[in-house]
Design goal:
This protein is α/β, with parallel strands linked by helices. The strands form 4 sheets. The chain has an 8-stranded mixed beta sheet with strand order 1-2-4-3-5-9-7-8, with helices on both faces. Strands 13-12-11-14 form a 4-stranded mixed beta sheet, with no helix packed on it. Strands 15-16-17 form a 3-stranded antiparallel beta sheet, with no helix packed on it. A hairpin with a 2-residue loop joins strand 12 and strand 13. Helix 7 crosses helix 9. It is globular. Its cofactor is Zn(2+).
């Protein structure tokens, strides 16, 4: 499918009721009720705090694909793209119907509803579900495992969101989308089913280069059997980690949402139309590994406490009411050559001070600063 066609589908079927970063069961419940009879919606379990966990099954093909989102409650971009995908599946588009003809999808939109409501990575017991694949100590982990064993997928899509710090390689290119074909042993052997996942990632990357050139990365594949992706890969099910990252001026992740949607369409169509054997896996190896080269803001050529330095700021995401806000925190005061800011400010050798002429310190929060007595806001616009 042409990139322009996918983009047109996205804007036509983008779910208008979901936006920005805060997405919970309260946001998706009414949307699940609206789905037509081609979708089988069911409650597949409950969270620690007895919130329902929903599963959605659709399609009638032989190739089975399991997808789950918001395993980390504060990573919602892929959930928004899932509902854009649901709307597209309801459209009757003939090429999209190819997916439903050849594949059966099982999708868990929010695996960690307690974490989603509290806007935290962990669940209500403060456990990272993506480190609970072996113990399965949490009800949410048991739900996912039960679906895995019952549905018996041929492919798994593990859907996440990543921080703004990541770069595609050690460069000034943002890692707007990242992938991983997880390892399945300590030696990180490139096994046959890892090759299958790698081939699919290579196809997605090829398409994304038309939209976000040089802004796709892959993660280090160090093996950790406690991670869900590594566990499923070790059980010989090709598994792909999706990570939704930062786009310029997109702290709500509503631009990145398009790129995740594009990745869904491209990968699902590729699986639907092809017998994926992993023979074309080498394109994956050309994708740069993620670096950590970005801060949200860098103030260059500043004078801090009488000394010349750069100032790095990272936003701390805070839930206020039902909105996610971004609090600027001083992360580093140092020579930051080799690092990049999503926003850069040149202090031109002048003193940089906080409110009430306070000196800047690592770990302190500042909504604005003063350069030559000129007030500059550090808040997300």
């Amino acid at each position: 499918m042409k990139t322009s066609t996918i983009t047109s589908l996205f804007f036509e079927y983008k779910e208008s009721q979901l936006s920005h970063r805060y997405v919970t069961n309260n946001h998706i419940r009414s949307l699940l009720k609206k789905l037509n009879t081609n979708f089988k919606v069911e409650v597949i379990g409950q969270s620690v705090l007895k919130e329902d966990i929903y599963g959605v099954k659709l399609g009638h093909g032989k190739k089975r694909i399991l997808m789950w989102s918001q395993m980390h409650g504060n990573e919602s971009t892929t959930t928004k793209a899932i509902f854009d995908l649901f709307n597209t599946f309801s459209s009757g588009n003939s090429e999209i119907n190819t997916i439903l003809k050849n594949c059966t999808l099982y999708i868990i939109p929010i695996l960690n509803p307690d974490g989603a409501k509290a806007y935290t990575r962990v669940n209500a017991n403060k456990v990272d579900l993506n480190r609970d694949a072996q113990l399965r100590s949490q009800p949410e982990s048991k739900v996912l495992r039960s679906v895995f064993e019952t549905f018996k997928p041929h492919f798994c899509f593990n859907l996440h969101g990543q921080r703004t710090i990541f770069s595609a390689g050690n460069t000034n290119n943002i890692a707007t989308v990242s992938f991983l074909s997880p390892a399945q042993d300590q030696q990180c052997t490139i096994t046959s089913n890892r090759k299958i996942a790698m081939e699919i990632i290579g196809v997605m990357n090829h398409k994304l280069q038309e939209l976000i050139p040089k802004q796709v990365g892959v993660y280090d594949d160090a093996f950790n059997l406690n991670c869900v992706g590594d566990t499923f890969q070790s059980e010989n099910v090709p598994t792909i980690l999706f990570e939704a990252g930062h786009s310029p001026n997109d702290y709500g992740r509503d631009i990145t949402r398009l790129y995740i949607y594009t990745s869904f369409i491209v990968s699902l169509l590729y699986i639907a139309k092809n017998t994926v054997k992993g023979e074309q896996y080498e394109a994956y190896l050309e994708i740069p590994e993620n670096g950590k080269c970005f801060y949200d803001i860098i103030i260059r050529n500043a004078k801090v406490n009488g000394y010349p330095n750069d100032i790095a700021i990272l936003y701390k995401e805070i839930l206020v009411g039902n909105e996610v806000t971004f609090l600027p925190i001083i992360e580093e005061i140092d020579d930051l050559m080799g690092f990049y800011g999503h926003i850069e400010i040149n202090a031109q050798g002048n003193d940089v001070l906080g409110a009430d002429s306070k000196m800047l310190k690592i770990g302190s929060a500042h909504e604005f600063i003063f350069i030559k007595k000129i007030k500059k806001s550090l808040l997300v616009k």
